Structure to design on (300 residues):
């Protein structure tokens, strides 16, 4: 899914079996949820968007689309995977889709589409009006499912890392607690803070890496569904710690879209442990996050 994988554990003989389970889950999730491979299930579903045709899908893809629709509802539309056309328009291209053959898939509703993402008349059969990008929530779900397979393999103390998004359980090999660095959004080698989250997950939405020029303008992959444009909110990165990796992904993007002016109130109102770095390098955090923070490079 475009992310390097790493499993850290002291499980001994069980570690190899656990790693095999991680690799197998990410391979299966990529085959179901990727928009960058022609044989992916999601690509087949997206190709039927706007045609009125139902597509038979696997349980893995069905769960992902239903989870994305629930996330849309709970975030008031700020998380919405119906941004694929916008990503393609600014140069973040996946497998080519016959989008012009389905005009409804190209229509942008002013202020964002408040309708459901998917029509589901029977289990395993989905119909879309607009194509989806399941990138962030897809990786979070893959982490959720892979972590469950690691535990099923008999490993209960581990850290699973997929490109900086994490699931952690129990204790590290050297004992104590897992210590996680909050990356410097400006690209510095040292973290800006060190945290000790409980069992659960940590996810980050950042514009540091997936950022490029398109038609002479700087763009990035964090699209605001309400405008169809990259969100320049005064923030460079948002990190969220919580019990589940998919929801940590959802809330990190939702808070990013809240912007520097609104993020503190929303994160506190929702009781989230969140850290954010403004474009001027300032680090701030919620009270719930501060309780998990053991060190900061400079106090916010």
């Amino acid at each position: 899914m475009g992310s390097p994988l790493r499993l850290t554990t002291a499980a001994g003989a069980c570690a190899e079996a656990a790693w095999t389970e991680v690799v197998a889950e990410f391979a299966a999730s990529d085959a179901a949820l990727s928009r960058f491979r022609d044989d992916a299930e999601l690509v087949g579903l997206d190709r039927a968007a706007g045609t009125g045709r139902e597509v038979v899908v696997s349980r893995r893809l069905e769960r992902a689309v239903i989870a994305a629709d629930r996330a849309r509802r709970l975030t008031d539309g700020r998380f919405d995977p119906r941004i694929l056309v916008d990503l393609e328009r600014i140069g973040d291209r996946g497998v080519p889709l016959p989008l012009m053959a389905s005009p409804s898939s190209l229509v942008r509703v002013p202020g964002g589409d408040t309708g459901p993402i998917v029509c589901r008349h029977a289990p395993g059969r989905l119909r879309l009006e607009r194509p989806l990008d399941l990138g962030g929530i897809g990786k979070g779900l893959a982490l959720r499912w892979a972590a469950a397979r690691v535990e099923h393999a008999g490993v209960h103390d581990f850290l699973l890392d997929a490109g900086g998004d994490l699931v952690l359980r129990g204790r590290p090999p050297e004992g104590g607690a897992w210590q996680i660095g909050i990356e410097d959004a400006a690209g510095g080698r040292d973290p800006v803070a060190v945290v000790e989250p409980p069992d659960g997950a940590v996810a980050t939405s950042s514009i540091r890496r997936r950022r490029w020029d398109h038609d002479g303008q700087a763009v990035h992959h964090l699209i605001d569904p309400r405008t169809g444009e990259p969100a320049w909110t005064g923030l460079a990165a948002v990190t969220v710690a919580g019990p589940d990796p998919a929801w940590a992904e959802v809330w990190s993007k939702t808070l990013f879209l809240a912007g520097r002016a609104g993020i503190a109130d929303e994160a506190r109102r929702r009781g989230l442990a969140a850290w954010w770095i403004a474009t001027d390098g300032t680090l701030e955090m919620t009270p719930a996050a501060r309780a998990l923070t053991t060190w900061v490079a400079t106090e916010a």
Remarks:
- The CA atoms of residues 101 and 175 lie 57 Å apart.
- The helical segments are 13-33, 41-47, 59-74, 84-89, 135-152, 245-269, 287-290.
- The chain has a mean pLDDT of 94.
